[in-house]
Queue: 3 jobs
Job 1
Amino acid sequence: MEAKAGIMIHTISSQEVKDAFRESRRQYFVGNLKKAQKLNHVSHKQVEIGLTRMSAGQKERPHYHKLQWEFVYMLKGVFLCVDECTGQQYRFEEGDFFAIESRTCYTQEALTDCLLYFVKCPAVDDKIQV
């Protein structure tokens, strides 16, 4: 295999991440972002990768994504996800992983302070609030 000229290794320091999270609860490391954020991210059209911090009791309104799948690894906390179509409740804790298929309408609630590592693909802004 031959190396390609002009290929780069992109970095984001832990201090940059800490600074960005002082002002925001969600930051993307990678993505095709339309909205400005504090953290300097790696632009990519196929995948979004980031962190979400939620405080105990914080909820997100029901929504779904037309195309995007979401993959989540729980770094910290206890988290509730509800499939709004079936009513099925899923409780996740530190170390758990879950995947949400596109077109699944769901709500989220942090039962304790949470930190979630997420990957979304494709990298499109297709969130539909219900």
Job 2
Amino acid sequence: MTYVVYHFILFPLHARTENALALSDHETKTKHNFFDLSLEKLNTKIMNILGEFKRYHQIVDENVMILKVDKEGTILHVTTALTEHTGGFEAEELIWCSITKIADIPEGGDVMSVVNKGEIGKPFCILLKGENNFGREFWLSCKVSLEECNTATIVCEDVTHKLSAEKLANTDELTGLMNRRSINAVLKKEAQLFERYKTPPFSILLIDLDFFKRVNDTYGHQAGDEVLVRFAEIITKGIRETDYSARWGGGEEFMLVCPNTMMENAYSMAIKLVQTVSESPPFPPFVGSLTCSIGVSTSEEKKTIEQMLVEADSALYAAKETGRNKAISLQYYNR
């Protein structure tokens, strides 16, 4: 028999009530045990999640090149993958240093002036160039995400080998100029711009080194290669930054593509180049001075690239037939 106290008087409980209280007590204990078990499971699950997060964080740190900088370009965080890629820097050596210690915009640009022009929530890509501790040049394709706290997260990918392969595919191995494949792409692009947007015309200068066969026959192909390399250097020094230079054929023919260039300007450029070559010091000392001939053609409405090339080639042929060491434009020559 169970009793309850009410105003200090003991009252016996009904058997059913006693049973109900006993059952209620049992349920309470069961709930407490379940709650304790749930907390234990929850704690275990949280620890497992934290462990997974730590493993993923380690994988990212060791394999993904990530950089965090403030608006001044000061490095706030850098992953192990990026420090190892730069040739052995420790993270502590890079934190609070400028991003330029790792890489910068090619050709003397300012990386942060580019980064700070972006917009929050609109990731964009830039190309950076750097040199590791061993003097090896590398290129990084970087995706930049600006954040509201005046910081930027930069995720990098090494594209050095990709760019090298592209350069090999688009560059003449001997002279370092563009090859025929890549200059054809430039011609196509300029023709499309001229046709679609009615931009100022572009011009072609087709250049041939006079009597080059004599150099090969007399002094050998090694001397001939030296002459071609020197000739390419003279050409590139005499053009504007916006112009494109290429080795057009497998021999002594070269090409310049000059965007936004009227015939008068292209012709003047050709005459100046002819004069520069003829007045240059002897190529290899034993070869002596050389000259070149140039044919000029300028884009016109409804004139195709093929027609421009034929016109430039005809002008070059006319220059050679009339004494060499000169530039000819059929537009002037046929007047």
Job 3
Amino acid sequence: MKNSVFQTDNHSSVERLDKIIVEGLCQLHPSLADHPWYIRERDVVSLFAVNYLAPLFENERLHRTMIGVEVPVLQVEEEGEHRKFGAHKDLVVWCKPWDTLWRGCSLIPKKPYKDYRLEGTRPFAVLEWKNISSILRSVCTIDKDRAKSIKWLKANLKESMFTVGYCILVDPELGEAELP
């Protein structure tokens, strides 16, 4: 029987998610060619999460509530930078069903947000997306944004804020996704 959670200390959980994501991306890209009006990054992320990732999760006996779109996750503090304790990320995969950043936090009495960094729930995976669109942004801007996302992912992976990070570049013209 398949495990219904992702285990942070288990390499097979990472391989399992990799397989699911690659399969979902392979299904997504023909749809983008057939539906060229999906030009905004949020539209593409939502399409992927709802139409491809969620059914693949169900096939793997993983609960749909383990998927979050534009949800906050904990992030590391960096010296010299004023940074909120959490950041909204394009797509998040939680370790267990019904997880959010706030699971496990004692919300009463109210505390300074930075104190939640210690007790908040950490996701299994964070997926940052960049979508090349001839209408919305230049490739140069996307390259800079992508580099910034990769830097954020690496810094937060180093501090174990999540187990695995992805930065997905979607180019509908090529009909494929690129994972660095």
